[in-house]
Amino acid sequence: MPIRHLWILFFVLFLSCGGPLTTFGHASAERDYTSGWNEFQRLLKEPGQAQNRNAWLAARNMFNSAFQKAPEGSEAPKALFYLGRVHEEMGLRFGQASDFSQAADYYGRVALRFANHTWADDALLRKAKIHLEHLNDSAQAYIDLLSIVHNHSKGDMAPQAQAMLRELDSAFLAKVNTSGAGPGSAVAATVPPASSSPRTTEPAVQASLSGPVASPPRPAGPDSDDARLTQVRYWSSDEYTRVVLDVDSEVAYSHRLLNPDPDLGTPHRLMIDLQGTVLGPEAPAQLHVADGILRQVRTGQNQPHVSRVVLDIQRLEDFRVFTLEGPFRIVVDVSGAKSKTLAGARPSSPAGQPQPQISSRPGDVAGSLIEQLGLTVSTIMIDPGHGGKDPGAVAHGIKEKDINLRMSRILGKMLEEKGFRVLYTRTTDVFVPLEERTAMANAQKADLFLSIHANAHPNPNMKGFEIYSLNLARNQDAVRVAARENAVSSKKISDLQLILTDLMLNSKITESRELATKIHGNTITGMRRTHPSLADRGVREAPFYVLMGAKMPAVLIEMGYLTNRDEARLLNTDAYLRTLATNLLQGVLAYRDHIERHAKL
Prior knowledge:
With 601 residues, the chain is an alpha/beta fold. It has helices at residues 3-16, 21-45, 47-50, 53-69, 76-94, 97-113, 120-133, 138-151, 158-179, 203-206, 366-373, 400-417, 434-443, 476-486, 490-503, 506-530, 565-571, 574-599, and strands at 227-236, 240-247, 253-258, 268-275, 277-279, 286-288, 294-303, 306-313, 318-324, 329-335, 379-384, 394-395, 398-399, 421-424, 448-455, 465-470, 536-542, 554-561. The protein has a six-stranded mixed beta sheet with strand order 14-11-15-18-16-17, with helices on both faces. A five-stranded mixed beta sheet has the order 5-1-2-10-9. Strands 3-4-8-7-6 form a five-stranded antiparallel beta sheet, with no helix packed on it. Strand 9 (318-324) and strand 10 (329-335) form a beta hairpin. Helix 7 (120-133) runs antiparallel to helix 8 (138-151). It is globular, with a radius of gyration of 26 Å. The chain starts with a helix and ends with a helix.
């Protein structure tokens, strides 16, 4: 028998005896990575060859093969990193923005999937530089740099990130001082200098807090019983701005809108008077926003026991004012009028307040979604419920916040593999206030908002999957779940329901219900194939703070009950979470296909 045949026979016998296939896969991945690295270095050293795009693509394919063969192996994070490096080099040589975007995406995957790898901070720094130098997105660069400072403070990239943050802050202050940081300023939504005291919020939240304009301390006021306005924060995009007024105790307030005055040159002004309130020493006298919608926020002691906050609004389509509890704060959402009227856009009343938007036919949401989603669903914000100091439900030694984060990562990865752009309200165990979560989705122009939770009940036999959209609660079970997720008493739920009519349009409620229905139906159908005993608790509606103010279809998913021993055991396994995520994914795909089917009519 020829020697070649003997080797083949030996190889077959080795595999039939249970040889470690994964070892061969990892070895093959390592060879591909090494080949890619050698080719990458060769191209850097040979300028002539470096002008051949196909040569770079060949190196890219080697790194991609290494990652695909062992996506959890030791070479995987390095392969992803060099996929980013290849696209970055192609962007520099061939001038295509798509290469820079692809590079930033690969660097982001390194930081997200391999957060503990020593190259994660390197990837984030390169991602920040790409956004800053090539994609004209200094706001995203700021977020990436903050992520290095807060999540990789001991890494070797932290000092450079700190220096870049200081440069961005200086640039922002210079722009404010010289030109007021006019409309569309790329750094209008930054934070105080990175050397300030650390916060507990996620970097993505940090990057959208109030700008670095502060006032000198002021006296507390004439009455020690007065509440204090302690802070003013904001998040913004080019179509939406959210302002939050932090007050250290619950207060009554009133607001009124003043129309522009051409003679005085004043814009729309929204005045909010806080009764029994004085300005705290940290409340800014004037906060420059200049995001194209909101020009600035001003605070003053209107009367001895009344603080006034004035929003100078440059472009106004709509606004909402409401309160949240735990702690008490007043939230103002401002939508900016578009510069050009879109076909099919809803009409406005003379006072600038929009008319309710109604679907074109009963039960048909295509009319409103075509405008809102731009004919497709591409960006999804995943919200892992609770986090940090808020553990959520705790039972059988399991904390809800941990399960929510694990599930969000699994689902997010599956969505990315289907071509969606996936964002997260948190990627680590940090506390993010409820109102900041939808604000992040609005500012990032997400098309869908999915809040991931696990349930709890006094009855340990209660179990099952359910999904919620925002509306009035229709039964006591929905009231109970909303009260638990909102972290307020059930008494407050009745107050919350009273303001929903001012917060939501009929079309938004319909769209969210449609999304909930699609996800629920596909999830139950798919799960019953592998877990036939899964209880179906249906599609429900309740007033959740975390869904309030979302500018896109938004749902809250209750995966199961941690207080039920069997479901807690399942939810604590990645295998079950992957199965559940696979079926949730099918629901999202079904909803997207439904929308795009209407859009193509």
